[in-house]
Amino acid sequence: MPREERRPLINNDHQGSFGVSAEELQHLVDPKSPDLLERLGGTEQLARKLRVDVRVGLSADEGVERSSDEPFNERQAVFGRNVLPEAQSKTFMELLWAAYNDKTLIMLTIASFVSLAVGIWEDYSPRHPPDEPRVGWVEGTAILVAVLAVVLTNAVNDYQKEAQFKKLNAKKEDREVKVLRGGKQQQISVYDLNVGDVLELEPGDIVPVDGIFLGGHNLACDESSATGETDTMKKETEGKGKGDCFILSGSKVLEGVGRALVIAVGEHSFYGKTMMSMRGEETEGTPLQVKLDVLAEQIAKLGFAAALAMLLTLVIKFFVTASLQDEFPPAGEIAAAMISIVIQAITIIVVAVPEGLPMAVTMALAFATTQMLKDSNLVRVLAACETMGNATAICSDKTGTLTQNRMTVVRGTLAEESFDSIEDIKNWAKKVDPKAVQELLFENIAVNSTAFEGKDENGNVDFVGSKTECALLGFSKSLGSSYEDIRHDAKIAKVFPFSSKRKTMTTVIKVQENTAKSKSQADYRAYVKGASEIVLGSCTHFIDEKGNTQKLDKEVLTRWNNIITEYANHALRTIALAYRDIKTDEYENAADTDEPPLEELTLIGIVGIMDPLRPGVVESVAKFREAGVFVRMITGDNLTTAKAIARNAGILTKGGEALTGPELRAMSVEEQRKVIPRLQVLARSSPTDKTVVVSRLQEQDQVVGMTGDGTNDGPALKMADVGFSMGIAGTEVAKEASDIILMDDNFNSILKALLWGRAVNDGVRKFLTFQLTVNIAAVALSFISAVGSADSESVLSAVQLLWVNLIMDTLAALALATEPPTDDLLQRKPISKYAHLINFTMGKMIVGQAIFQIVINLCVIYLGKPIFHLGDSPHDDAVLRTIVFNIFVFLQVFNEINCRRIDGSINVFKDMFNNWIFITIQVIVVLTQFLIVTFGGIAFKTTPLTPMQWLVTVLIGSLSLPVGTIIRLLPDCGFERYFREDARQLATYSRMHWEGAIGDVRNGLRVYSMLRRSRHPHRSHSRSDSLTSVRSSLLGTSPPRYGAVPTNGNAPGSSNNRFASLVAYAQDFNRAAGEASEHQQNKASNNHQS
Q1: What is the pTM of this model?
Q2: What's the Cα-to-Cα distance from 192 to each of 259, 750, 1022, rounded to whole Å?
Q3: Which parts of the sequence belong to the Cation-transporting P-type ATPase N-terminal domain (predicted)?
């Protein structure tokens, strides 16, 4: 083995000759710890301990003494290499064993070997009829084949899903990065990065390691994928300002350039540790698997009970019959009879075992996962499909999941004309002058920006840089502007970069022929953009839709301030755009100053930007609510923005709670359990908060689905019952942790997963209803006919039972378990994970149909000869047995249609002709039955029937449909309340809405009561003072003088004024109460953060 393969990835036992260990370095960034950095002596001292001069970088031949030596051996032995150990994937044999490790399959295997042994013994026993083929081995062999098919299907499915997942993640991870080594800038593989390297960072880079910022210009990173925090993180060197000097692996450089000292690589980095934590955890059994195991045990017990009852009955019958004979049978005959009776009992067990059930589950899941891939759901964990069907809660990340993770201009007032949506932007452009307004606006956006168009980490063309600047460039591009052409033509005189102190960016250009025209044209022009209230305060004029300059008087200023307030109330980030034409002498006088010309600006307008919702999110949330699934939004964003987004998406409703992560963490476990049922928004959350929410919900028996795309979402995705990650925007950590990957990153695709999950559960239940009906009827008929016959033989032969009990079951599994979902599935609530697999409606149908089938077949067995005008000849006996067999089969054919609806619906034919698989299988079964009856005489002990006998047997079989309707219409007589299966809902939207409405009414009545008391101050002067103090504390103003108390009591319109004032006052009170409550929440949040 080569030496590099023998060398361990990481060695934590020593520091080597370095003054710091890998553990100390990793604690610097998780969490970020300026205190620890200070204890280590700061950045300069840390570099010395790592034996690196940050001005020169590492030596490219460090540790190389001989030609055979490899560089950085000692460094990598202490701090590790920048690779993660390859995840150990299961071999195909391990997948086979995992698929076989199922109670039902093991029980079927035992039954098959018993059946095989008994069948072979019967075939070659002296009692075997010479005119019958030796087919006793077929039953056991067929069950073994069914088991093998299930195991192979599951194993192949798991193998394919793993292969698809690897293919999805097959990105070119081995990319080139720039480092400083030996005083020169070099490009090396990302795998060759070492602790101590000096890494060069540029806009668009995905940081592959943890580092400390050494220096640069205006470096800002997007750490939302790692921390969930959407705000851009400005980087400053250690101890300088309030900036952050730590650079996290997995973050993205948005703007600026800089250098970083690498302090953690591979599995010691923030990204690597999160990836490693996602590995090696086994998932628990899903609700359906648990229920199937319980059902298999119950069926086995019932089968043994029936077999024992048959054994005792036939033994008693044999000895009673023998004792009544003249001579008691000899020992040999008794032994042969006992063996025959034991075989009959074992046959009952084999018949009772639902060998088609595992096949139904496998087919349902395999079909669903295949179809879900077409709906952009890549199912990594097969069982997650059915688990999602009964999800009671969805905890969704905001950025990149509900929203597009792309800041976008969504509203604006530019040149006195407004647009209120993205779709309305084109209409705005038609209202303003394209030369005087649009060109001025486009030039401002293009030259006053450092963002550019390039390829993102997925190779897609997109804007790279500050999210605000990307939003503005996207806005101008949507109107047909080319920022590259404008920048190419513009002659930049001076740039004043964005400053957090000024909150503006200013670019001065020299006016040329192709420069945008303005009414106050001069030699130079300063373009300004920034915080709206700052820029607006520096403006003295504004332009209208024709490009004419208007004076910004007090009234107009108030109007613009109201626009800013309105946008801010909708959680929009407001940006003002302005310009100023400057003469040459003015420019020369100000050229040497560091302060931009921010006086006497002309306002172009104000835009509101936000991360917009994904298309279809609002509709999906509404459908989730309709389906009884509670949607919660968990985000790292601030509370105000989170609440606004949640309201727009329909997540935050009346009566719902919105909290911050610090507030939730400050609560006790019991308080968390009480508040989380109504929690709809959790802002400023950490990864720990997400796992707390998931665990608290799971403690209260909720089935939780968690969506996310960032590295920080990994632990919660792993803990949730079903984890959804984003296939496009999602990090590898999120994909590794998830059960289902949304290939199109569309929140609406989760609805598809819910539908398919419910379809899988329903498919299994439909098949179970059909299967158990067949089994009960077959066991009862075999039992009764064997006890009632002279030679203790069943009316249905072993081969006939094979066709009914195995082939039809397998085909029925394919027919019933592959029904596609319909929107009707969203009209019901989730089923509890503790609910029995067989509900009251199913149980009623199983018992009712089984009794009907048994009665019909017994009537035909004992009354069939006179009904069908048959004699006592052997041929007529064969005809009667064939008629019984044919009726039994067609009862199952029509009952299969009946089992399509297990929800109590009368119309069993609904959507049946849209399911070509079901129709095809029904045709195949009928044709095969015709061939068996007509041509299968030797093997199946049948004889051809006349057309009239065919017609009568089919009509009798079709009675399953009206009998099914009658069973559905039978009253439940109060029994259904013992079979309640709806999952327990911690909080319902209707109840929260009513409680919220009652609270509003209570507040309104309180306001009305105070208003009435305020009209009669002479009754209680102190009461009036109390009212004044209450209102002042809430509104911060003195009570108004109402129209109800004018100096002239007969003033016209006084009653109207009184009513209008009461309404206005009530509205003010409610608004003030809400603001006061929000102020308290923000205050509490700030206290927690501090």
Answers
A1: 0.68
A2: 17, 40, 79
A3: 36-120
